[in-house]
Amino acid sequence: MKTPPLGCAVLLAVVITSAVLALFAQTPPPAPSPSPKESPPASADYDLRWGVKIPMPDKVELNATLYLPKTPDGSLPRTPVIFTLTPYISDTYHARAAYFASHGYAFALVDARGRGNSSGDFEPFAQEPRDGHDVIEWLAVQSFCNGKVAMWGGSYAGFDQWATAKELPAHLATIVPAAAVHPPLDYPGVNDVAFPYEMQWFTQTSGHTGQTNLFGDQKFWRTKFLDAYKKHIAFKTLDAFVGNPSVNFQRILKHPAADAYYDAMVPSRDQFQKITHAGTRTPTDEVGGVKFGPSAIVDLNDLHRQWYDWTMKNGPKPEFLKNQVAYYLLAPGNTGANGEWKYADNFETLTANPKIFYLEAAPMLGNDAFRSGFMHESRPKEPSSFIKPGEFTYDPLDTTRGENIEGVEPNDKTAGLDQRLPLSIGKDGFVYHLDPLPNETPLVGCPRLTLWVSIDTPDTDLEADLYEIQPDGTSIALWSDIRRLRYRESLRDAKLVKAGEIVKCDFNPGLFVARRLMKGSRLRLVITSPNSIFWQKNYNSGGVVADETAKDSRICHVKVYHDATHGSTIELPFR
């Protein structure tokens, strides 16, 4: 079989990645983080070269640990080389490297610039494009390499594969980025809304050594974030507040919106069209209390090995990759039984033709889960003079939600089932319900919310969360999104809102969802402002959000419109 070029790599879209992010409706999607715990390698059939230095053009040396396949006579092998470029210290990925070296591939674990035993200064995401390119070209001419170099990794190490590929290194054969970070969409915030978690991550990647235990002390970080939230400190002082003044944290504050700084990190649209990829993060059968079931688990070491065999050793195409898109459809209920892998020709076809539902709420209707608004298919016919908008209030100085709903105790094991936020909504948000589903119904695609709103402050933030409420009352988090209203038209250009002006805010594109909803389930949509310990607080002044404190605070009255001219809608991908 002819080895496919890089541009022929197969896209593998896996819903587990999206679902994990959606589970934490009141918690921001995680910033780049260390790999999940690795399972032990199947064997120790490899040789080691520790402390190999890879020279960069600017005299910086990157440190690599080489895992080499054993040969019968002890000579160096001549095989394709796989490498990971990581800020998490190369030892983090020991088990993966051992696995691939035991299966006929040289594997190089390379510490990112300024991390581990590499020299230089660590500037997250900025140096990886050229460093990745130069590592590939160095590895390709080593005696143990046959001229073909591939990459492996997820999160940060998924990002740097895309970043490297855009530099078009001559000897890059394939990439398998998994759950890749994409500045500026999800770093250093989400849709230009920052989150304190970044300071937790900057602490993890401070200095040259790992800070894994400190990074993982969730109660410490939640306590710090809650304390900062209650004291209304300026977000720009968070690094000093937690005890770790950070050059990298201060650097990203100078770039609060999409701009050329982030553009240089990732491929352009034209470059993306030349590259496709495969991969997902290490899967698990339960996240946040939501059960995926044993069918969801894929042996990714084996799948990636098959992929490398196909792309670099003329092996057969992996059987799992039957089509351009593979996704896991979760079973109804929450037992995890009977979930299944599904396939589609392309993502556009898979997610096309959602059903439109119109939101309906009014004064005295919608500000409570038990006196909720509605989602229905009937388009409103009356004008705004007849259908009064619903209204909720966001007071940045109100710390009730952070103290009483979120608190300091980690709830990672039950976050996907947690109903405390929806049930706490009062005058600070809206709750909408859909009528019970008459039949079991697949929800496959990307929900899209469009709100017509007016506010009486120059700016505010809006959050949307979608849940399945099953017949027995169990809540399953499905989808979430967040928007800063000044960036409603563009993530690059701020446009403050005039008092009373009715503006359109699209929550799109959003996360992918694939789940069979139970017969009798209702969908619940929550609209609120993210007054949370997990998000940068917007004090609504219209100024630089990172500089704002309590003295800048303005109470925002948010009106959501549901009339014939301004029909707020949600598009649901029922199948």
Label this structure with key terms.
15 helices; eleven-stranded mixed beta sheet; alpha+beta; Rossmann fold; Jelly Rolls; disordered N terminus; single chain; globular; 575 residues; 27 strands; 25% strand; six-stranded mixed beta sheet
User: How many domains is the backbone divided into?
Assistant: 2
Main sheet attributes: strand count, strand direction, barrel closure = 11 strands, mixed
Structural class: alpha+beta
Q: Rg, please? A: 25 Å
For the residues shown, what is the average pLDDT? 90
Instruction: Quickly count the helices.
Output: 15
The CATH architecture assignment of the largest domain turns out to be: 3-Layer(aba) Sandwich
- The proportion of residues in beta strands is 15-25%
Would you state the CATH class of the largest domain? Alpha Beta
Question: What is the quaternary state of this protein?
Answer: single chain
The tally of strands reads: 27
Q: What's the overall geometry?
A: globular
CATH superfamily of the largest domain: Alpha/Beta hydrolase fold, catalytic domain
Q: What is the name of the CATH topology of the largest domain?
A: Rossmann fold
Topology:
Blueprint: H1 15-23, E1 46-55, E2 61-69, E3 79-86, H2 94-101, E4 106-111, H3 128-140, E5 145-151, E6 153-154, H4 156-165, E7 172-174, E8 177-178, E9 189-190, E10 193-194, H5 197-204, H6 212-215, H7 218-231, H8 238-242, H9 247-253, H10 260-263, H11 269-272, E11 286-287, E12 290-291, H12 300-313, E13 325-329, E14 340-344, H13 347-350, E15 355-360, E16 373-376, E17 390-394, H14 400-406, H15 420-424, E18 429-434, E19 441-445, E20 448-454, E21 461-469, E22 475-484, E23 503-507, E24 513-517, E25 522-528, E26 556-560, E27 569-572
Parallel strand pairs: 3-4, 3-5, 5-7, 6-8, 16-18
Antiparallel strand pairs: 1-2, 2-4, 9-10, 11-12, 13-14, 15-16, 15-27, 17-26, 18-25, 19-24, 20-23, 20-26, 20-27, 21-22, 21-25
Helix pairs in contact: 3-4
